[in-house]
């Protein structure tokens, strides 16, 4: 039986089962520069270049609904207090296809973060809304915790507490990523993190992740902060949907 949950989930992916998702929810934490300073323009260009889905905020989903009508839409649910039901209902009202929440693991306070993500997952499931969980070992700032082993453990926890999609870090090389993701039984997409200023390195990581079983990306600053975000989307498409090499992808940036 094909349910409403299945239908929403399918809108986040292309026909080949892979997803090029532009992470565009950084306005929540005050980003207002580069492509984030002109959100509708950036969204239009990214979609025209081949983005399958957009991870955004509820306010943008409302403001730019016409722009987003033909792509999958995930909404940021990182911050809520108490019962998340109103937030989930709002996402459904906006026509969102997925929710997304960060889940911190492996540090003091992580139990609360895990419980919060699990609570949201249960409410999302009751309402037929898929949930993307973004597991981060320790914190974004505590890079020492971002070992392949910890990344793998965090990903497994996310799958176990109800993620329909796990948005996780790349471990740095194919061998360690393959090992880290071995026990994660839900679809994996990789995040991009801070703007590295080295698009070849980002494309290399994406290529490695896809080669070892990831089904796509949800990358933000390394796309929308680039001087030509649409060209980066096209380059990512060469790897994700075209099965091309990093060198093939780099040709799209010329």
Structure, explained:
The chain is 41% helix and 16% strand. The protein has 254 residues and is of the alpha/beta class. It has a single domain (4-253), classed as Aldolase class I (TIM Barrel, Alpha-Beta Barrel). It has an eight-stranded parallel beta barrel, surrounded by six helices. Helix 4 (85-93) crosses helix 5 and helix 8 packs parallel to helix 10. The protein is globular. It starts with a helix and ends with a helix.
Characteristic key phrases:
single chain; 254 residues; alpha/beta; TIM Barrel; eight-stranded parallel barrel; 41% helix; globular
CATH arch. level architecture: Alpha-Beta Barrel
- What is the CATH H-level superfamily? Aldolase class I
State which percent range the strand residues make up: 15-25%
What is the C-alpha radius of gyration, as a whole number of Å? 17 Å
Distance between the termini: 46 Å
Query: Could you tell me the mean pLDDT?
Result: 96
